[in-house]
Specification:
This protein is mainly alpha-helical. The protein is built from six helices and no strands. The chain has helices spanning 2-30, 33-55, 62-67, 77-95, 97-118, 130-148.
Length: 149
Amino acid sequence: MIWLYLMIALLAGAFMPLQAGVNAQLTRVVGHPVLAALVSFTVGTFVLFTYSLSLRSSWPTIGVILAQPPPWWVWTGGLLGAFFVATAAALAPKLGAATFTSITVASQMIVSVLLDHYGLIGFQARPLNPWRALGATLLIVGVVLIRRF
């Protein structure tokens, strides 16, 4: 089963530079990266809503949510995603697909290593070790090489 998860994650990662390019072109159509992000999220919301209905699973009630309130930060995922999509739409054409994607992947790895090391926001603690540190460092070196050459 882990191989299926890895393949789906690989596919999701491959979609990130495509999404940046598509939304950059959408920015040219609608005139602003924030508007492009809004259109992108509207389409995504429609697709997710339709899919959610097809699952036929029950939705939590406000009473259930209030009975055991989650931490405040669980509601920030959409904000983080909106920031990324708008930033990608604005900066990917200026930096190029390879530079934009490499720097976002490197920053994702740095934050991910920290989240794992400290076991934050629900991740199981996985201590930083020399191999993980080397991997993150090599990603940073990759950004520099891609940007420079």
